[in-house]
Amino acid sequence: MPEQDEARLALAPEYADTLVEWNSDEAWEVVSQAREAVDPITRAHAAVSMATMRLYTGASSFEDSEAWRNEARAVFEEFGDDYGLARYWWSVAMDRWNTLHVQETVEAAECALAHLERTDERGARLRRMIGSRLGTSYHAGPMPVDEALEHIRALRAHEHGLLAAAWSNVDTGRLHAMKGEVDRARELWSDARQVYVDAGLLMTAATFAQGGAEIAFRAGDLHGEEAVLRDSLEILEGIGDRGFRSTQALWLAECLYRAGAEDTEIEELCAKARDSTAADDLINFVWLDMVGGLLHARRGEHEQAEERSRRAVALAETGAFHNTRSYSRAYLAEVLALSGRTNEAADVAAEAFEIFEAKGDVAGWAQFRSRLSSLGVVFD
User: Fold this and answer.
1) Which of the 8 DSSP states describes residue 100?
2) DSSP, res 123
3) pLDDT digits (tens, 9 = 90+) for 120-157
4) CA distances from 334 to 35, 216, 344, 375 (A)
5) Are 40 and 83 in contact (CB under 8 A)?
């Protein structure tokens, strides 16, 4: 159809939502064209797509995103468009996820599902994505491992198709790794990632590297952890992603620190991530301060190290992600130990242990306990 044909523009928002999986720049161009449509519904769907997509492209600010979403919601409510309202709440959920607010993510996702219940099969893809994010919220938040596994099993009873099952397996694998069941975790993760690769969903497949890295970390497999993160980063750079790429770079930087790598590459990764991180992408700022604090400590710059490490802890506490809250405290304990303050380090390590224990993340705590013990931190 001609570029300005209204029927063509009506298809553009959802096409762009899929296109972002392998070409972020082209996806943004496609959805921007739909903003020029005459039909207000098409313009509203384009607006909500842009609000969500900016998390992957870095093409706009949080303020722009809020304005687009509010504009779209008013149109959807005026026309009684439940599918549009479901997409609105999905976009809200993703923004809440970006700021580490797990419960608010779940609540927004459930609002989206409620609207989808009043739509036809048009919402099947969105329903799968929302269900998958709910499962990830159970994994990433403070919900204990066994309870999270039960919630994910309940979700799967209402999901259909290979993609939904594969995403669930990634989260299930991450939870099994926390319990120390790393062989089972690796099997689940590897098979699930391959499903997304085979489906051509390159961005999502690449983001699954975080799950693979978590599993490798809990298995004590530094080389495997580094390899999966490097592979993912290469894919994300190839498709022009600017959202997940910065997070993967920081995860790799933290992995390289644990591997004893030189500061140069770690600092380069952090600098690139900082330049492309959105102002509200809080997990990146936690990781930037966490890794930066560790590098300062390794160089003997103890005052700067403690300042940045405590800032990472404070920022992590504004949300409810298990990894950010537990890792930031464990690394603060490491920073204090490197400055010779092992008694204070033990107190902070005890706080980290409480978070790991509440989650049931015995394998994660075992890795940090081993590191801290080697630095002279004594545990009761």
Assistant:
1) T
2) G
3) 767 888 998 999 999 999 999 999 999 999 999 999 88
4) 50, 21, 10, 8
5) no
Instruction: Output the six-digit token pair for 97.
Output: 């996820």
Output the DSSP codes for 78-105.
HHT-HHHHHHHHHHHHHHHHHTT-HHHH
- d(C-alpha 223, C-alpha 240), whole Å: 26
DSSP letter for each residue of 136-159: HHHHHSSS-HHHHHHHHHHHHTT-
270, with CB counted inside 10 A (0-12, 13-18, 19+), is buried
Strand (E) or helix (H) holding 129: helix 124-140
How far is it, in rounded angstroms, from Cα 244 to Cα 32?
Answer: 21
Scanning the structure block, which residue is given the tokens 């739509």? 119
Could you tell me the two tokens for 66?
A: 């809020």
Which DSSP symbol is given to 65?
H
At residue 114, what are phi and psi to the nearest 5 degrees?
-60, -40
pLDDT in tens, 64-118: 889 999 999 999 999 999 999 999 999 999 999 989 999 999 999 999 999 999 9
The answer for residues whose C-beta is within 8 angstroms of residue 232's C-beta and 6 or more apart is 206, 207, 208, 209, 248
Query: How many Cα atoms occupy the beta-carbon half-sphere of 50 within 13 Å?
Result: 28
Residue 103 CA to chain centroid, in angstroms?
A: 15
**pTM greater than 0.85 (yes/no):** yes
- C-alpha of 250 from chain center: 12
38, with CB counted inside 10 A (0-12, 13-18, 19+), is exposed
Dihedral sign of CA atoms 292, 293, 294, 299 in order: positive
Q: How far is the C-alpha of 34 from the C-alpha of 11, rounded, in Å?
A: 8
> Using CA atoms, how far apart are residues 119 and 226, in angstroms rounded to an integer?
43
Measure CA 225 to chain center: 17
- From CA 196, how far away is CA 201, in angstroms rounded? 5
What does the DSSP 8-state code read for residue 38? S
